[in-house]
Structure formats: structure tokens, C-alpha cells
Amino acid sequence: MDLLAGMIAKAKGNLQRIVLPEGLEERTLKAADIVLAEGIANVILIGHKAEIEAKAASFGLKNIAKAQILDPATDAKMSTYTNLLFDLRKSKGMTIEEATKLAQNPLYLGCLLIKNGDADGEVAGAMNATGNVLRPAFQIVKTLPGISVVSGAFLMFTNTPEYGENGLLVFADCAVSPNPTAAELAQIAVCTGQTTRSIAGFEPRIAMLSFSSKGSASHEFVDKVVEATKLAKEMAPDMQIDGELQADAALVPAVGQSKAPGSAIAGHANVLVFPDLQAGNIGYKLVQRFAKAEAVGPILQGMAAPINDLSRGCSVDDIVKLIAITANQAIGAKK
Length: 335
Ligand code: ACO
Prior knowledge:
Blueprint: H1 2-13, E1 17-20, H2 26-38, E2 42-46, H3 49-58, E3 68-70, H4 78-89, H5 96-103, H6 106-115, E4 121-124, H7 130-141, E5 151-157, E6 168-172, H8 182-200, E7 205-209, H9 220-235, E8 240-245, H10 247-251, H11 253-259, E9 271-273, H12 277-290, E10 294-301, E11 307-309, H13 316-334
Parallel strand pairs: 1-2, 1-4, 2-3, 4-11, 6-9, 7-8, 7-9
Antiparallel strand pairs: 5-6, 5-10
Acetyl coenzyme *A binds next to helix 7.
């Protein structure tokens, strides 16, 4: 995959500090070893130092010695992280005792490092459910200015070059927000356009998907997509966005021309924004299975710093890829 090779090269040229809270997890350690050996990122592992070192030695991982290891039991900055968490959450009722306990949780600590400027991004989830990875990220790192909703995009590498960008499309939201409002859906569209530019590396042509094309059906679900399209265009006048479109009208030129004549996107979309998480999650999995597409993601977007969640079934290679993607997001965020 040329795109990934490009991302790895970019990450090597501008090393970012990526925190891996699951420092004792076997695949995570093996991925960290590869990332350090190849110089893709600086790695911060969270966990008991002697235990991490013993585990690395038992797997024959020589490069873990280059990682920064943050041991919550002994780290000199723990009181800084605890106070930061308390300050961020006291208005929500958190006590200092609760903050002291939660700051020891590696998933909270990883986010506190980022918030304190001690790390540039995080990859976690090899042994934690999505909600447990996302909740501290939402509470501590929070969203970008002007964005209130985090979402998850997938790069879909299909074998159908007639669609998207030579077969590559970006789908969202497939991972995070179950039922976005029209305003949130507009944000998801704009964030996906930005991810497309910074990670997929092409100019987005965004289709706002529905079961209706340009008024062919009327329903409150369609109204939401129509409203989201209008709001997204206002938010990002420099982005090509159109809707509401059915998936075939978005992708197939002849269908696009007949269902949405005059639309510059219809028949030529390379970004598909789904109306809710059920559609997005089901949609990407169907394309992955039936079209044998490689689905890379979810790439979380809208967060103030990049944090990405692994599937618990991930491979070592998946983790290395996601670290490279996260590093690229961090580089993009600093521009
Ligand atoms: N974007 C930004 N902030 C959010 C979002 C969001 N999408 N959702 C919740 N938050 C914030 C809230 O504002 C709140 O902040 P506050 O405490 O500062 O007020 C905090 O996060 C907690 O909010 P809750 O509503 O209590 O959220 P909860 O913790 O219950 O759930 C979660 C959040 C876990 C992400 C939930 O939306 C979820 O489970 N989403 C689906 C994830 C999933 O299972 N995806 C499919 C699998 S992934 C795959 O297949 C690739």
C-alpha cells in the first residue's frame, strides 16, 4: 500500500511521541519494538518498568530499551497528572481521591500525558473495549475548537478502481457517534474531508448518504441529511459536498446523472458520509466482506489530539500501521 509507505516515511522524518497505555500487552510490545527499530515514532509505554522489560526480554525484543517507560507507581510527575485530572473534572463532581485513583489507570494516564504536552498521540484498545478507550479521551483531551462530536473514518481500499479515488474511498462515521444530529453530521462530514486531505492525500468529494436522492423521498431521516448538507457547506465552503444522495447516485456516474442532474459530486464521490452509526458500521463491514476491501481504521477525528482505538482482534501489523497513522495526524495537527 503506497499510501501507508508514504505515511511511514513522513512519520520517520518528523518523530512524534506516541503513548501506548497497554504497555504489557504482547502485540503492543511487539509493535512498539518494530516502530522503535524502524524509527517510525518515539514510544512511551505505560506500566511497571521491570515487568515490561522482563516481558520484552522474554519475546526477544531488543528495541524496547529505546522506549520511555512511564510507571504510574513511581513516576515523579504523577501528582501533576492527578491535579490536572482533578482540575478538568471537578466541575463534574470528581473528588481528588477519585482523580488520584483514575490517574493510575493507563487509559486515563495516556490522555493526561497528551493534555500536559508530554505526548503527541495515543494508540490503545488491543485489550480494552472502545468505550473504555474513548471515555477518557472525551473527558480529558476533548474535541477541536468548533467541533463537538468525535467520529471514526475508515480508508476503504477496494478492488474497484472505477469508484472513488482509483478504488480508495473514505467512509464515516463507522465507529463512534450512534445518532448524530444534523449539526453533528455536518461536523462529521467536514472532519472526514479534513482526514481525507491529511491522511488519504486527495481532495474530498463528499456525498451525504440517505435512502433518498435530491427529494426523491420525504421523511424526517432525509430532512436530517438535507439540513446536515446545508450546514456542512456553510462550515467548509472550500470543500465539495453534496446530498442527499443514495449510495448508487453517489458512486455510479450514469445513476448520479439521472437521480441528481447537475451535481458535481453525484457519480464521482470519494467520501461517503453515512446518516448514523448503524448505517456506517454495517456499510463498511459489508464492503469489507463482499468486495474484499481492506478497511484501515477507525481513524478517530475531531479530537484535539489524535487518539486511535484498536480492535481487540488486531495484529501486530495493525498496531504498527495505526501508530504511523496517528503520527501523521499529530504532524497534521501541528501545522
Ligand atoms: N464526541 C465527543 N464527545 C463525546 C462523544 C462524541 N461522540 N460522545 C460522548 N462524548 C462525551 C460527553 O460529552 C461526555 O463528556 P463530559 O463527561 O465532559 O460531559 C463524555 O463523553 C461521556 O459521555 P456519555 O454520554 O456518558 O458517553 P458514554 O461514556 O456513555 O459513551 C461512547 C461514549 C462509549 C463512545 C459511546 O458513544 C459508544 O459506545 N459509541 C459506540 C462505540 C462503538 O461501540 N462502536 C462500534 C465498534 S467500533 C468498530 O466496529 C470499528
